[in-house]
Amino acid sequence: MTATASPDLSVILGSLSLHNPLLAASGCFGYGTEYDDVADRDNLGGFITKSISLAPWKGNDPPRLTEVSPGLLNSIGLANMGVEKFANEVAPQIVTGKSKAIVSVACKVMEEYEEVVALLEDVEGIAGYELNISCPNVKEGGMAFCLNPNITEELVARVRKRTNRWITTKLTPNMTSVSQGALASEAGGADAVSLINTLVGMAVDWKSRRPKLATITGGYSGPPIKPVALAKVWEVWNAVKIPIIGIGGITNWKDVVEFMIVGASAVQIGTALYADPNLPGQIAADLREYMRNEGVGSLSELTGSLKTDRGAMVGVPA
Amino acid sequence: MTATASPDLSVILGSLSLHNPLLAASGCFGYGTEYDDVADRDNLGGFITKSISLAPWKGNDPPRLTEVSPGLLNSIGLANMGVEKFANEVAPQIVTGKSKAIVSVACKVMEEYEEVVALLEDVEGIAGYELNISCPNVKEGGMAFCLNPNITEELVARVRKRTNRWITTKLTPNMTSVSQGALASEAGGADAVSLINTLVGMAVDWKSRRPKLATITGGYSGPPIKPVALAKVWEVWNAVKIPIIGIGGITNWKDVVEFMIVGASAVQIGTALYADPNLPGQIAADLREYMRNEGVGSLSELTGSLKTDRGAMVGVPA
Amino acid sequence: MKYLEDAVVVSNREIRPGIWSMWLRSPQICAATLPGQFVHVKVDASLTPLLRRPLSIGRVHGDQLELVWRVVGTGTDMLTDVRPGVTLNLLGPLGQPFTREVNASHRVLVGGGLGLPPLVYLYEWFREHDLPVTLHLGVSGRADIPLAEDDPLLNEIEITAENGEGFRKGLVTEPVLEQLQALETDGSLGSTALYSCGPWGLVNALQRTIPHSQLKLAEVSLEQQMGCGVGVCQGCAVIVEGGDTPYQLVCSDGPVFPLAAVHPPGVA
Amino acid sequence: MKYLEDAVVVSNREIRPGIWSMWLRSPQICAATLPGQFVHVKVDASLTPLLRRPLSIGRVHGDQLELVWRVVGTGTDMLTDVRPGVTLNLLGPLGQPFTREVNASHRVLVGGGLGLPPLVYLYEWFREHDLPVTLHLGVSGRADIPLAEDDPLLNEIEITAENGEGFRKGLVTEPVLEQLQALETDGSLGSTALYSCGPWGLVNALQRTIPHSQLKLAEVSLEQQMGCGVGVCQGCAVIVEGGDTPYQLVCSDGPVFPLAAVHPPGVA
Ligand SMILES: Cc1cc2nc3c(=O)[nH]c(=O)nc-3n(C[C@H](O)[C@H](O)[C@H](O)COP(=O)(O)OP(=O)(O)OC[C@H]3O[C@@H](n4cnc5c(N)ncnc54)[C@H](O)[C@@H]3O)c2cc1C
Ligand SMILES: Cc1cc2nc3c(=O)[nH]c(=O)nc-3n(C[C@H](O)[C@H](O)[C@H](O)COP(=O)(O)OP(=O)(O)OC[C@H]3O[C@@H](n4cnc5c(N)ncnc54)[C@H](O)[C@@H]3O)c2cc1C
Ligand SMILES: Cc1cc2nc3c(=O)[nH]c(=O)nc-3n(C[C@H](O)[C@H](O)[C@H](O)COP(=O)(O)O)c2cc1C
Ligand SMILES: Cc1cc2nc3c(=O)[nH]c(=O)nc-3n(C[C@H](O)[C@H](O)[C@H](O)COP(=O)(O)O)c2cc1C
Ligand code: FES
Ligand code: FES
Questions:
Q1: Whose CA is nearest to atom 23 of ligand 3?
Q2: Cis bond before residue A21 (omega within 30° of 0)
Q3: Distances in whole angstroms, Cα of residue A230 to Cα of each of A262, A287, B63
Q4: Which D residues, 147 through 186, put their C-beta within 8 Å of a C-beta on chain B?
Q5: What pTM was computed for the model?
Q6: Residues of B involved in catalysis
Q7: Min distance B285 CA to chain C CA atoms (Å)
Q8: pLDDT for B154-189, tens place per residue?
Q9: Which fold has domain C3-94?
Q10: pLDDT at residue B314 tops 80
């Protein structure tokens, strides 16, 4: 399954370089080791851990998942082991290998973000942090941080003071202007922005008249959200200068190329990993073939390469 | 194809009563007569015309449509014949029959909404107006009216002064809080709110690196947006007292029942009509069978009947 | 009058690699249609594909009509799995037909690749009415001809292939221009009607090279992504000069337009 | 050790109306698995269904394993179309197996409907190890028995059917309680292990009626909607007493849990 090493798939996101543009999305790759038996972590340029909070979080009541073909609704509620256990027991195992370990951090108040990052600074080898300020499934904190650009900027700035490591902010599509969130992140000193987190969605059982998730609404992910995600990445590409990590419904190499064309420098793969934990290896191989076939010298030339000149836009031939 | 008349499917939305809860969505049923050859308009409780502006609008450059399986992206840009031609040539033909004709109005400035409505007041038989303040595909006006609740309220209030007819406002999901838009509509004097209009989305051709729509982004509709629409209807149900018309991805009777359970008093069917203009007749028949099978006496008892008591929420049996 | 008709599939076969021909029994649509119109096909009862797919009505024989298509994506691929005996739901006949110029001295039909089917219908219509007609087809090679190897039409029409392969070698515009020149020489150009359908390259070449203004009529049939197929969604706009707006709808104003008036999308 | 294995389908047949049995050759998973574990099945290469579907590992014979399922939705329906010879991608073995109590004096297995397959595997495991075991199955009628009519097990296990239909008539809890009473009488209740899998109704009835505290062990295998199947997504939580949080994960902490500790979802 391991792809041949040429052409080179590496990309650079400011101070972070990745051997390929494929990252596992937070919440879809656990703490980093769970898939080790069945998938080579090194097929990933990097991975974002499940979001880590200060204290352990138990998450929301079940049921927490429901399929809405061909997408997924979840209401996990950031269930996680907390930073202490993560830093001591898990982190040392995930900072080995070619694949960069990026820790997602999610908290209820600003100070906790600083504290969690401060604690993680002691773990060698962590490549950076993704500040999850966009989870729709928790009552306190979560998405609220992202909806207010002033808070976003302050939070990023405060974390920036605690670390020299690479920081990206994970943004929500559930707001009027995601580019405000991106601009605020940039102003606060983020090295990159990650988008999109899940869309707020809902499913109901017509017969029992009950919601399919205990929290009633949840986060919508998977292939159906790709068109929304592409539009958000394009919007943010036109607003900020820092690199963008595209997320939402990616299932194959074409999706990756599309996200890069509209402005992403790298991408994250989420829900699709549950179906195939080996997908990144497959996509990396396919991307190499694409580069050979299309004569693409470096993936970075794709980023933001959308052709928008109307003159030559021919839809369908007659 | 015409369903038997019992059980009764009628619903009441304030001053508007419909013989069934199925409306054709604006932009998906033309001006009302185009499908007459192949589908009985009376199978609909009512229909919303293509949005009408003061002057005729030419719409956006082609290509204007692209399928993103199993959804649709459009960038029509409210191409329409303008109110004068509509009022003189079309309106008289559509105000006959059981199916209520509701005229969608979309303009670039507030005064034009008032003017269009004033002109339509002269056409007898129009059952009401849907104020489209949520189109993502026009540069001026469109969605901008909806994004600012103060403007929404003022606009509705101004139109309210011009007519005693039933008014609904069509809201966008592309904002942080759709319930603000709904509350503003209610405060302005709307009789109902319609949601959702399309989500902003985008599609790209990986090979040519061109957007698939000339306007780059467009409006996303069809089955993939249903989970988002259900969540928005539920949110608004918890915010306002006026009736809600649920829209987004409806393709069968179960979808209709689900929208009603989360708070809708009626629904609109959009994109699915292109595949099957006879769908409303089929759904009406299926709803009757559902009512018989489940012992539902009146569809209105479905509205907002979601059971949210955790105690009895059993996900899957072991 | 348009119909929503459950047409029974009579036959479905691959006539060239990736090119299929299907005959369907569709009495209402067959009775109502004219050359240049199309049907909007519900490929499958499921949500994939979500939209119908527009296909030109090819030959019409009695209560049966022919659809000929190239497999280019999901919808056209799924159609290859359809077996005789099942029904496909057709919406049609849709669109404005070609102007059937009965008073012309000659009719020149120019098809490129999969642009052929509606012209075959038009060709047979003129033949049935004993009106002089020439049908030119341009392809890159034999594998692109949307007619089966055993189709009698294959020897009746003028085929030009870029690769030769036993046909006249070159571009289809060449024999067309030759014919128009001959018609000019014998003074009948002004009473000649030209009908075309094919890729933009061909349409554009015809626009540039033929003596439009001297012809009695020059029409082209266009394609565009479609939603409704009946003028409801405004989705199938193309840029055509001479209307109230820069745009016209392929499904209801077209698909047939004056050749000189059409613009490729995005080149307004 | 978990594997992602392309297992070759050996057979696939409908053993009762809507209930199917499939045997697959899956050497790695067969070598690694124990009773109570499950596989996460990639039903189709397409995006429908998006997620894998969890199915208990039923019997394991050599390098072949059996899956038995009831058609309840898209995924289980698509599995009925799979023909011998093709491969299905399995992720497994997953989850914590039943505690295989070798030191008990007796083992009472209680399955309800489609809860049977993992217990059949456990039953055969105990039989192979010559350990005394009784397998009770509760169904509403013959049509619900997840064993084929020609399956030798059918005459070996204790079946209770609500409709009778030639079996003991009633609820499966009745013979189970009788057996436990008999075991109590002969003084071996404290060395008896109970294993169960079935609908919440059955689980709850067992929780209410059996003398938990006097048994050596009482376990239940649970179901829950699953994403990853390996503890990554936190999606398959159920409410189980005795952990750090009110929740445990069916895929990795379970599916086997102490019978007394589990709560139906939503009834915390
Ligand atoms: C009036 C008319 C007549 C046509 N007649 C024929 C014919 O006789 N034979 C034939 O082979 N093809 C014909 N086409 C083109 C045919 O409709 C497309 O090839 C087909 O819709 C592609 O569908 P797909 O699902 O296979 O491709 P996909 O790529 O999966 O289609 C994606 C989307 O693009 C649209 N689309 C893609 N290509 C075209 C196109 N060229 N024109 C319009 N929509 C397109 C589809 O409808 C769909 O919405 C005609 C088109 C029109 C408008
Ligand atoms: C550990 C485990 C072992 C199982 N073993 C068996 C078995 O041996 N035989 C058998 O018939 N069934 C078994 N099930 C249940 C089986 O997984 C579901 O019936 C199946 O996933 C339904 O899929 P569907 O696409 O047909 O239904 P759909 O209704 O289309 O499924 C929709 C969604 O709900 C989920 N889902 C629905 N019902 C269940 C359920 N009961 N448990 C978990 N997820 C569910 C599906 O995974 C999917 O995400 C098991 C479940 C678990 C968790
Ligand atoms: C079950 C589940 C759990 C998730 N948990 C997190 C999380 O802890 N932190 C986070 O930032 N995003 C989380 N996400 C969001 C994903 O990282 C990603 O943004 C989203 O799923 C869209 O990508 P996809 O369509 O590829 O899945 C989660 C998504 C899913 C489906
Ligand atoms: C091609 C197209 C054109 C539309 N035009 C309008 C319009 O003119 N006015 C309006 O309010 N909504 C318009 N809509 C939005 C629909 O009315 C509806 O809100 C949306 O499509 C979601 O419903 P659906 O998923 O059932 O299609 C249009 C939608 C489509 C697909
Ligand atoms: S396809 Fe809808 S207007 Fe032409
Ligand atoms: S299914 Fe993902 S944690 Fe259990």
A1: A248
A2: no
A3: 7, 19, 18
A4: none
A5: 0.96
A6: 135
A7: 18
A8: 999 999 999 999 999 999 999 999 999 999 999 999
A9: Elongation Factor Tu (Ef-tu); domain 3 (2.40.30)
A10: no
